[in-house]
Amino acid sequence: DVCSSDLAVFAQRLVRKVCKECRVPYEPDADETLLNRAYVFSMKAHGSQLRASGDPYFSHPIEVAGILTDLHLDDETIATAILHDTIEDTNVTAVELEDKFGRRVTEIVQAVTRPNDLTYQEWIERIVASGDVGAMLVKLADNQHNADPVRVAALPPEKQGVTKRYTRSMATLQ
Predict the structure, then answer these.
(1) Which of 95, 106, 123, 166 has the least CB density, counted as fewest CB within 10 Å?
(2) Cβ atoms of 68 and 1 closer than 8 Å
(3) 159: which residues sit within 8 A by CB, 6+ positions away?
């Protein structure tokens, strides 16, 4: 069995590989207004939700956005990271998201929102097949954060196994 620290390193390598191979643009003049609006919107949407570890849920999208910020990605991709779980885990709709953040951000959020009728592996394969680099990067950063060894160790044993399986599924992106 692969340990969670190996999974975190693996996810981090995949994020960097996709960035390098796809030559993702870096915008040094990020739209801070967009990022602030995404922050406030996501924080309100997630409210008092908690992660399985007991951490406030909102810390997760911020950590995912931080991973992508460290890679100097564009503001739309970072805003998407902040918003990536709003459709799946809150009452936010795609229509509401598009009204507030535009079509591209909404498309990526929808791409990284798993449909109920797909297995995790099928969904990852769909993201890869779409060729949507933004969606791939957000999902990779999401998995990288979820695979953090400290976070995985804080989960109940049944959740640890799921997290490890999900992160291993990202091998599809190699």
Answers:
(1) 95
(2) no
(3) 52
Q: How far apart are CA 132 and CA 158, in angstroms?
A: 31
CB proximity list for 38: less than 8 A, separation 6 or greater = 78, 79, 82, 83, 101, 105
8 by Cβ neighbours in 10 Å (0-12 / 13-18 / 19+) ranks as buried
Residue 22 to residues 8, 37, 60, Cα–Cα distance (Å)? 21, 28, 25
Local confidence pLDDT in tens for the 174 residues of the chain: 344 455 455 555 555 555 555 555 555 566 778 888 998 999 899 888 887 777 788 888 888 988 888 888 888 899 999 999 999 889 999 999 999 999 999 999 999 988 889 888 888 888 888 888 888 888 888 877 776 655 556 555 665 565 555 555 555 554
What single letter denotes the amino acid at residue 72? H
User: So which residues are the catalytic ones?
Assistant: 88-89
Helix 75-83 crosses helix 133-146 at what angle (to 10 degrees)? 50
Q: Is this model's pTM higher than 0.85 or not?
A: no
Q: What is the dihedral of CA 152, 133, 90, 66, to 10 degrees?
A: 60
Q: Helix or strand or coil: residue 70?
A: helix
